[in-house]
Each structure stands twice: as structure tokens, then as C-alpha cells.
Amino acid sequence: MHGELDFSVAGRVGAVAGTTGTSAEFLWRQYESGFDVEFWGPLGQGRTHLVANGDTLALRTSRGERVIDADARDWIRRELRLEIPIRALSSWITGRPSPAWPVSGLDADTFTQLGWNVEVGAWDDWDGRRQPRKLTVTRGDYRVTIVCRQWTFGAR
Question: Is 138's pLDDT higher than 90?
Fold first, then answer.
């Protein structure tokens, strides 16, 4: 469906908006044409699968519902409390700004893009590649923290 794997990363994500928070385990698989990511709670409960392929964003919920594009974005905001620009995360999770949008304040560990502040709190070396161990993405009182536990790279 997507072609050859660029990278995959497994870890934990937590989101806080004001006084409300949520967290989940995740597995992100990045391909040239898009990505697929799975989120789940304790003991694998509530597994949600998000797939971006080209311009299409599709979501399969833990209850088997399938929602597409704008409805998928609304579901992510409502159920996962993630209001972050999902497509930009493909780059942000690697500690780099997306080439699709303007960036400011770029230095070794931080940048601002699409109104979001992205800060890599810790880097680590996986297979000779420097990748984030922890990053925090903030805008106003909204904060998403991503802890990367394992990176795997494709053949490229």
C-alpha cells in the first residue's frame, strides 16, 4: 500500500490541554507516500489505527468504525485529544521541521512551525543515526510529549 519503509518508531505519547490529559503507546511507520500509526492504552486496549496515503487520511477505531479525512481529524481531536497537525508530525518526530511549511527559530534542538513550538529534549543514536529520544510540542496551553523507545530504519 505504501511502498518501502523509511522508518518506524515505537514509544509513548502524552497530550495535555489545560487540565485535561491523555496518554497512549504508539507505533509509527513512515513510508515515502505516507504513514500509518497505531495508538493503544494499557494492556493494548482501545487500539486505533491512523493511515495517511497521499492526500487521504483514514482512521479505524477500536470499535471498528472507519472515518476518513475531515471526519478523521475531528475524531482525533475529540477522542485522542490530539489537536496537533498530524501530517507535520512525519518530520517533527525526527526532530526536523516539515519542508511543506515555513519554519522559524530553527536551531539544533528547537523550531517553530504552524504556530507550534517543537523542542527535542534528548537525542540518542540508533543504528548510527541521531534521532530524538524525547520531544515536546507546544502551542498555548496545549502540550504533546513524545518519548521514542525504539527506532528502526528501512533499506534507504
Answer: yes
